From TrEMBL:
The keyword Hydrolase applies. Pfam families: NUDIX. It comes from the Eukaryota. This is Nudix hydrolase domain-containing protein. Residues 63-204 form the Nudix hydrolase domain. The keyword Hydrolase applies. It comes from Caenorhabditis briggsae. Keywords: Hydrolase. GO terms for molecular function: pyrophosphatase activity. Belongs to the Nudix hydrolase family.
Length: 214
């Protein structure tokens, strides 16, 4: 993945459907969790550019995606709630409201990772996995970081879910919230954006629910 030092171009195999000629692909920085890369590209009209990107170092080879996001629906006292988490995100410099989420470990399926991460981050036990999405990408202009969305149903009246206890890592600080699904968009709209931001997957879900009623 290195470029030639004598000024010549090192060609890169062209991926399917790629309209560009790629060359001089290299790792710019390699860290514990991520690496940054850059690659030169040439358009069909001869214009040249450089694309820089970020990639995780942690994805097991057989994993279906880097991680999972969990749409956890709690049925409790005849009401439907969505489980959300709030945590400080250092890259954003703010608190962030999100779906529970996490990386897929070696040997796990997306559904197994979702059940585990839900229990660890929120303390809630899964009743049933409703569906699993196809592989999707979070910010494809910047990174190949990928996830599967997993929808989980939770029995909020079950004894194990009356007082859920988180199983957090020593470096995690996560607040768990239950918001009625019918009030999710209004809850998000009333947040103070100067101190808290909303993860895009959650916002898209809330907007979808809102538009479905229009």
């Amino acid at each position: 993945m290195a470029s030639l030092s004598n000024g010549q171009e090192a060609s890169v195999d062209k991926p399917a459907n790629c309209p560009f000629q790629l060359f001089n692909q290299e790792v710019v920085w390699n860290g514990k969790w991520i690496q940054t890369r850059q690659v030169g590209f040439r358009t069909q009209t001869g214009q040249q550019g450089v694309w820089q990107s970020v990639h995780r170092n942690t994805k097991p080879a057989e994993a279906p995606a880097d991680g999972v996001s969990i749409i956890a629906r709690v049925r409790k006292q005849d009401k439907l709630f969505i489980v959300l988490v709030k945590q400080y995100r250092i890259p954003c410099g703010k608190l962030c409201l999100e779906f529970p989420a996490g990386l897929i470990d070696a040997g796990e399926t997306a559904q197994q990772a979702a059940i585990r991460e839900l229990k660890e981050e929120t303390g809630y036990a899964c009743k049933k996995v409703v569906m699993e999405s196809k592989l999707c990408f979070l910010d494809p202009g910047l990174t190949d970081d990928s996830q599967c969305l997993v929808v989980i149903d939770i029995d909020g009246d079950a004894p194990e879910n009356l007082n859920p206890i988180q199983l957090l890592d020593s470096t995690e600080s996560i607040e768990v919230l239950l918001v009625e699904q019918s009030k999710l968009m209004s809850y998000i709209s009333e947040l103070d954006s100067s101190s808290i931001v909303v993860e895009s997957t959650l916002l898209a879900y809330a907007m979808g629910i809102q538009f479905a009623t229009i």
